[in-house]
Design a protein that fits this description.
With about 425 residues, the protein is mostly helical. It has one domain: Growth Hormone, Chain: A (Up-down Bundle), CATH 1.20.1250.20. Helices cover about 75% and strands about 0% of the residues. It contains 12 helices and no strands. The N terminus and C terminus are likely disordered.
Amino acid sequence: MKVERAVPPAAAPAVGRENAPTRPGAGRVLVPVLLILATLIAYADRQVIALLKPALDRILGWSAADYGTISASFQLAVAVGFLGAGWLVDRLGPRLSLGLGMAGWSLCAVLHALARSVPQFIVLRAGLGLFESVGTPAMMAAVSARFRPDERSRIVGILNAAPNLAAMLTPLLVSLIFPALGWRGTVAAIGATGFLCAAAWMLGPIPGRVPPAPKPDAAHLPDRTEKKSQGMLRRTAAFALCKLLCDPVWWFMLFWLPDLLHRRFGLGVTGLGLPIAAIYGCAGIGALLGGYLPHRLGRLSRGTAGGERGRRLVMGVAAACVLPIPLVLFTHSLTAAVALVGLALAAHQVFASCLFGFIAEQVPESHVGRAASAGAFCGNLGGALMLHVVGGVIASGGLLSVFFYCAAAYLVAWCLFALLAPLRLLTDGPR
C-alpha cells in the first residue's frame, strides 16, 4: 500500500508587530479609546497655558505681545514638524511614531514647570509643537489602516470631538488643581499623564490592517495611474487650503478666548471653567455631527457620490453658521457671547470632521499620513500667523477685523473646496 507523505502547509508570511492580528473586539475598541486619550492629553497640554495666562501675566509680567509670541512659537513649530511628520508616520507606522511623539510632547509639557522667562517658554512651546506634529498624521494613518472605509468618518468624528472634550475638562481641572498646586504644579501634573497613555499605546493590542481591495489590471487601464495621481494631488490641495483658511479661527479661540472673556466680563482663572466648558461642549457636538451627518444624508442620494454630496451640504450649512461671530464684540451678555462662540466652534468642528473624513475615505492608505500632514502644516502655519498678529491687534484695538475674518473664512473655503475637488473626480474612489 502506497503511503503518501503529508505535505506541510505553506508557512504564513512573517507578520511584524505593527500588522500582527489580535482579537477583533479588544483591539478595535482599544485603538479609538487610546487615540481619544492621546488627543485629550495633547489639547490639555496646549490649553493649560492659555487658562493660566491671567495668573502668569501677574506673576511673570507677560505682555499681550509676549503671549502672542509664545503662542505663535508653538504653532510655527507644529507647522514645521508637519513637513516631516507624514513621511515619518508612513515609514514607521502609527504605533511607533505616535508612541514616541506622545512621550516627547509629555516631557516638554512637564518641563514648562521649570521655565521662568519668555525665551524659555518659547523654546519649550516649540518643542511641544514639534512632537505634537506627529499626532494628526499618525492618528489618521491608524484609522485608515485599522477600520473599513464605511467606518472611518464616524471614527474621525469621534476623534475630532476629543479636543472639545479636552477644552471642556481642562478649565475645570485647572480651576481645581491651581489653588492647591500653583501654576507650576498644575502644568507638571497635567503634562505627566501623557507618559501613561504612551505606554498603553506601545504595549496594548492593536488590530491588523484592513485587507486591501483588489486592484484592477493596469494593462487594461493605461491612463488610470496618472489620473489617480492628479486626483489625489487635487484632493490633498483642497484639504490643505481649507485648513489654511479655517484653522486660524480655531487656534485664535483656543489661545485667546480665556483672555477675551477675562477682559470683557472680568472672569478669573476659577471663573472661566463653566463658560469655556459650555462653548467646547457645543464644539464637541459639532464634531460628532460632522462625522455622522454626511453619510446619513448620502443615503438619501442616489449614485456613488451620495456620501460626498451629503458632505458638501453639511459643510455649506456649517460655513453659514459662523457668520454671526462678530456680534460677540457688541454684546454685554456673557450668555449671548457663550452662545455665539459655541455655535461658531460647533460649526468649525462640523467642517473639520468633514475634511478629515474626506481624507480618510478619498486618499489611498499609503498616502494618508502625508496628506494629513500637508493639511495640518497649512492649518498650523495659518494659526501661527493669526496668533502672532492678534497680539498686536489687541494692543491697537482692532479686534473687529479678526472677527470679520473668522466669519468669512469658511464660506471662502467651502467654495474653493468645491472647485479643487469637484464630485466628478470622486465617484470612483481612491482605492
